[in-house]
Amino acid sequence: MSAQPILLVGSVALDEIVTPFGEVRDAFGGSASYFALAARRFAPVRLVAVVGTDFPEDDLQLLRDEGVDTRGLEVVDGRCFRWGGRYGDDLNSRETLYTHLNVFEHFHPKVPQAYRDSPYVFLGNIHPSLQAEVLEQVRSPRLVALDTMNLWIETARTELLRVLRDVHLLVLNDQEARQLAGESNLVRAGRRLLDLGPRTIVVKKGEHGAALFSTGGEFALPALHLADVRDPTGAGDSFAGGLLGYLAASGETSGPALRRAIAYGSVLASFTVQDFGIARLRNVRPEEIAARFEELRLLTHLDAER
Amino acid sequence: MSAQPILLVGSVALDEIVTPFGEVRDAFGGSASYFALAARRFAPVRLVAVVGTDFPEDDLQLLRDEGVDTRGLEVVDGRCFRWGGRYGDDLNSRETLYTHLNVFEHFHPKVPQAYRDSPYVFLGNIHPSLQAEVLEQVRSPRLVALDTMNLWIETARTELLRVLRDVHLLVLNDQEARQLAGESNLVRAGRRLLDLGPRTIVVKKGEHGAALFSTGGEFALPALHLADVRDPTGAGDSFAGGLLGYLAASGETSGPALRRAIAYGSVLASFTVQDFGIARLRNVRPEEIAARFEELRLLTHLDAER
After folding, report:
1. What is the pLDDT of residues B83-112, one digit of tens each?
2. How many Cβ pairs closer than 8 A exist between chain A and B?
3. Do A209 and B229 touch (CB under 8 A)?
4. Which of B264, B296, B301 to substitute to test the interface with A, most A CBs within 10 Å?
5. Which residues fall within 8 angstroms of residue A65, CB to CB, at 6 or more apart?
6. A256 contacts B219? CB cut-off 8 A
7. Residue B306 domain flag
């Protein structure tokens, strides 16, 4: 079976990133950008997002060169969504310097006619009512995945719970899982989230890896051993991109396929964090992905021969 | 090959433990106690430690009933080592209420003649110069393992570095690994510790599992998915006991044997945290250990069939 297209909605942004290893400004970013560049390794990506007139032509060309379908990328009068963040010495703490919604403030996703039959849908981390608007515009997708964040869990819980009823796969980080479930034990939290609608919960734990809770079983995967981490921005979005990309490419949703998908998500995220912004992710080659997947298998297998 | 004996030095204590789920006083504890009860599932244990005249006869009998060799357990005038700790709501934070060294203050380990040919040695978490005193009293052991803590890393670094030169396997937690290596990236820290002497470094990460750094390769293992955790006290010591116990029972030190040993350590720790003090650990049956090992394999395998 050939790779099926993924309809993606999320943010495309210009970022300012400060880490102990350097800083960048006006860097191509946003959750949808990282997701698209990761998922594109496996399956076609159809982007729905908005940018301002200040969005660099080079960045638009980059998306096209990567084969991302940008017919759903609106360009409207105004400035792009801009985000600035500063990381602490060990890269585990992050301070948000600013979040300027700009053109994103009045965004309502419009799904082009040509996208409406997309069998895979990824509702990136935007307001749950916008995520719901996307679902209203598509025809019975095979798999709907959703990412969210603490802001929406706190301020739009009702809308989030409503859209989750139509979601198959929920991707979120450990803090968000605890917060959404109202449960400090992560295992209990993961299991409890299955009551909200999704039949699969994937919890991202950063340097501690990822965990799967599903009606079919559970899985725990450590992160690759990375000695050189320069910028964690976009790691979670790259993870989700690798995960959903692999599922769309394989056409499977079995337990073993989900395990491999989580491993590919982890592999894509591992490239992203090794350089600033999308610098490493955009240049990753298929043979590098395959090699790192094998490295992850060897690192984690209890029955490994070495 | 039959299981080889392990010479164990460490603390035997009476603990006060307060968690959101209850509290106990004068509970049989100490790092050597947890280690012994875990390791005993796999191999004979020869204990070197000290207690006061207030040490309950029942606790001594418990050790003997478990088959622990107590000829090296000194009883001296005075009170036992006593420790009190209180855990926060999510069990991830711990406050030490008090540490009364009592008879431990003037302790110098005396290794009985009958113990001196022990092929496996575990130097539990005590002052590094006492750990060195034990090594001076044994004859060319096959494998020496050592545990330590932030207190000794800060106050007895020179002595610790000296004894580490004669150690094959270093077990410590993630914070201690970072502190001892002077490196915030845990992967770099683990690799750097190999320069200190040990050919194998095992890093305990609590609910995030464990990691192996060795001259022969690396391994990462997540923790079992536990929905019911009541008291984390002794988890790290039970982990070390399961780890070294398995190595002493198998007689192997290959990469695959180290991976299995770490998994057995994780399994033993998982029982310990499910009840207060040693309550669950002392009652664990061989078939329960085997079942949980299999559960861990299924939870972590990328190629699992379900």
Report:
1. 999 998 878 788 999 999 999 999 999 999
2. 111
3. no
4. B301
5. none
6. no
7. no
For residues B213 and B191, is the Cβ–Cβ distance under 8 A? Answer: yes
Task: Among A179, A191, A225, pick the best mutation site for testing chain B contact (most B Cβ within 10 A).
Answer: A225
The DSSP secondary structure of A13-73, one letter per residue, reads EEEEEEETTEEEEEEEE-HHHHHHHHHTTTS-EEEEEEEETTS-HHHHHHHHHTT-EEEEE
Q: What is the CATH number of the domain that holds A294?
A: 3.40.1190.20
3 state DSSP class of A4: coil
Can you tell me the distance from the alpha carbon of A59 to that of A61, in angstroms, rounded to the nearest whole number?
5
Provide the 8-state DSSP code for B283.
G
Q: Is residue A6 within 8 Å of A245, Cβ to Cβ?
A: yes
CA distance A50 to B80: 69
- Written as one letter, the residue type at B28 is F
- Whether residue A183 lies inside any domain: the answer is yes
Domain containing residue A138: 6-300
Report the chain B residue with the minimal C-alpha distance to residue A294: B302
pLDDT digits (tens, 9 = 90+) for A175-201: 999 999 999 999 999 999 999 999 999
Verify whether the Cβ–Cβ distance B220 to A205 is below 8 Å.
no
A45: its two tokens: 């990506």
Contact (CB<8Å) A90/B185: yes
Instruction: Quote ipTM for the complex.
Output: 0.93
User: Closest-CA residue in chain A for B212?
Assistant: A299
Look up tokens 């070495």; give the residue. A306
Measured CA to CA in angstroms, residue A33 lies from A13, A14, A37, B202 at distances of: 8, 10, 6, 38
Record the pTM: 0.95
Q: How many domains does chain A have?
A: 1
Query: Does any domain span residue B1?
Result: no
CB-CB neighbors (< 8 A) of A89 in chain B: 184
Pairing of strands B45-52, B200-204: unpaired
Chain A contact set for B222 (CB, 8 A)? 209, 211, 220-222
The pLDDT-based confidence of A304 (bands split at 50, 70, 90) is low
In a domain, A153, yes or no: yes
- Considering only CB atoms, which chain B residues are within 8 Å of A205? 208
